[in-house]
Amino acid sequence: MTLLHRFAFAVLLAGIAAGSIAALPASAEDEPVSLRILAINDFHGNLKPPSSGIRIADPADPTKSTAVPAGGAEHMASLIKLLSDGQPNTIFVAAGDLIGASPFLSALFHDEPTIESMSQMGLALSAVGNHEFDEGKAELLRMQNGGCHPKDGCRGPRPFSGAKFHYLAASTFIAGTDKTVFPPYEIRAFEDIPVAFIGLTLKGTAGIISPASAAGLEFRNEAESINALIPELKAKGVQAIVVLIHEGGWPSGGMNECPGLSGPIVDIVKELDSAVDIVISGHTHQAYVCTIDKRLVTSGDKFGTLVTAIDVKLDRNTRDVISATATNVVVDTSLPKDGAQTALIEAYETVAAPFANRPAGIITQVLSRLPNISGESALGDVVADGQLAATAAADKGGAVLAMTNPGGIRTDLARRDDGAVTYADVFASQPFRNQLVTVTLTGAEIKAALEQQWLDPARPRILQISRGFSYAFDAKQPAGARVDAATMMLNGKTIDPSASYRVTLNNYLALGGDGFTTFKSGRDPITGPYDDEALFAYLKVNSPLAPPPRDRIVNKAQ
Question: What pTM was estimated for this model as a whole?
Fold first, then answer.
């Protein structure tokens, strides 16, 4: 698709979204109020266009899909302006995970650039997502209120003043109280008609963030938290209610379709009070426009590749929603760049360059994070190997085995023409900057931890393991019997259930993250380097590095 064609495609989609209300007359006493809601979700600090772009239906052949460049704050800001132009009432909102698991440019500064970018773009409200809590409650409050980082200080090009938009957290409570971390909702008036926006994250957040980050917080049921607010809102004269929720589903169709949507969002929406009119969702990194239980439900992919344009008609008499339609619009990279966003990005790039451009080494091929049928990825193998190398020496931990969680590996280690990899590339693949911890576990405890990979059998979390360790599993076996103990080998010898082994984990896993509670039994901990530093050092020593064979884990059911 040529640059011109991409631009025409973006404008065409924008025209479709705009056209649904363009024919409405100007406000009059007996005519509806028009409201345009612009929404994003799961931006994850992608200030620059993600390398993956987005897959869309091929305009030349709708039965096929094609990848197009998409995203970037500079282009998103222009699209937001385009979709707002000429509209009598607009509001820009988000369904969580604006920050966390971010590329180097945002993560180096603890996501301050993304908060500034969204504020500059005119974002009004955002639900909290699970990744908003990656660095704990205190850090999230700093994102809202501003101030220097407690450890790294003021690292950016200017003092950080905090978000100009408001976070909402209807289901996240200070443990043991009925006080939410942020307000549960905010009411905005459009031509004197109040519209409530309720924001919240998924109830399972505590299980997918660090136990240390979840300490002191309670994440309650999504539908119950929303429904409990309805009487209060009605008492304030609110009839139109929009939910921004960081939970979602999995569709089987295109980005503006909804065949066969499955996942938690379906049941949540069906449990909602009938007063809720619109649900803007996220978390699953999918794109869809659905009607569930007579309500509009949307999601806008990930990494800033889409903006969801929702056109709402509000009745002047009942003050409720008459209708709502939506279109997901591609943030096409051929759209003009917003000058203010460009200046913001360049200011942070100038500060980041000395860190970002440090050479790590050479790779011969892309190191992909995509798993094979056994759940093993080439990059996962290399990450685990790097962690073992960093902690194998007796004075560094004496590790004989390293394991890491797949969710901590966020992007491929892409290969440039010369094969060169920089620290920024390494950081992008390991953006959480978890510290390594080497602990003592018995062979029986290692097996018990591996069994916990199937706490959710439908979506197992297969740990990535270092060279020298291997095993086989059969996911069709009952819980606790999926890993074949006889196949658990370390450097050619069968793992002894009663013997002790020094195992390196990141501190997220060591605290029981992702449900791996067995790792909390680890003894005699020795703290090591950060995971990104371990990978950086491993690449330096082992360049040029080729993808290792993915033969450490065997899926016996295949």
Answer: 0.87
